[in-house]
Design brief:
With 280 residues, the chain is mainly alpha-helical. It is 64% helix and 0% strand.
């Protein structure tokens, strides 16, 4: 499918979140009455809540149906416990549109629509840049964009150096889902947490949890980056810590696929190879 299809899916994901946020806000008003914190008449609120919930479910179904046609899902993620098509769509949605706005301006320079766009093009240049996962030559660059690089914190008065929504999706949605679902990736979380309990007694329980979750998500993102880059025909390379800092332990994506699915997956690949050879 074309890139426009996935850009459209990204827009639908944002719509899903907006509807969900509005529904939850109305739901809180209803709960305040049920708990005696308010005397508001919520008859209309209940109608709106039900109506929004029906729309939300329809949008989610549409997003999930489309997401399940993406090669990342069909070739890999459907075999990984703890991440569903909606979560995958949210990850893709925060990445697929990278540099699209820049390229749209660059293509029509020097006749950009306004002074702001002309200033944008002057600052960033008018060359066409890789979009989506192609914008990240290394997994370290993706970690940084997701706010998972060391020392990345919000600084008052300054623009964030990362995509805060992607960070929320990675840690608060994908990471938590993997832990709750006892995903094979959880072994990284459990091992890291046990190590921090032994080596960092000065950390709070929450600090150790967040650090271990962060480590687990970074490993998953390295596999996400590798698979997507290969599907798009981009070269891949090892993480900076493996190439330059002397780290030797590398997690392979095969270690985190459900065994019963992986066996079938390998069989499917072998059959495809045999069929290809038969047509030569």
């Amino acid at each position: 499918m074309s890139e426009n299809v996935w850009l459209g899916m990204s827009t639908d994901v944002k719509l899903y979140r907006q509807i969900q946020k509005l529904r939850l806000g109305i739901g809180e008003r209803i709960r305040s009455v049920e708990q005696g914190r308010s005397e508001r008449n919520v008859a209309r609120d209940r109608e709106w809540f039900d109506g929004l919930y029906a729309i939300e479910k329809n949008v989610r179904k549409s997003v999930e149906t489309l997401a399940q046609t993406h090669p990342l899902w069909t070739d890999w993620l459907q075999y990984v416990r703890g991440i569903g098509p909606l979560n995958m769509a949210q990850l893709i949605g925060e990445i697929v549109g990278i540099n699209e706005h820049h390229n749209a301006i660059a293509r029509k320079e020097p006749k950009a629509r306004d002074e702001r766009e002309r200033a944008w093009a002057k600052e960033r240049g008018t060359e066409i840049k890789p979009t989506g996962i192609g914008a990240f030559d290394t997994v370290s660059a993706l970690w940084k964009y997701a706010g998972l690089a060391p020392g990345q914190k919000p600084i008052k008065g300054e623009v964030l150096s990362y995509n805060n929504r992607l960070k929320t999706v990675c840690l608060g949605i994908v990471g938590d889902c993997m832990i709750r679902a006892n995903s094979p990736y959880r072994v990284i979380y459990d091992n890291a947490k046990a190590k921090y309990e032994e080596t960092r007694p000065d950390w709070t329980k929450g600090h150790r949890h967040y650090a271990a979750r962060r480590k687990m998500v970074k490993v998953f993102l390295s596999h996400f980056w590798e698979h997507w880059r290969e599907l798009e025909g981009y070269p891949t390379r090892k993480a900076y810590v493996l190439e330059h800092l002397g780290h030797t332990h590398e997690h392979e994506w095969q270690d985190f696929v459900e065994p019963e699915y992986f066996d079938g997956f390998v069989t499917m690949i072998e059959k495809e190879i045999e069929m290809a050879r038969g047509t030569e």
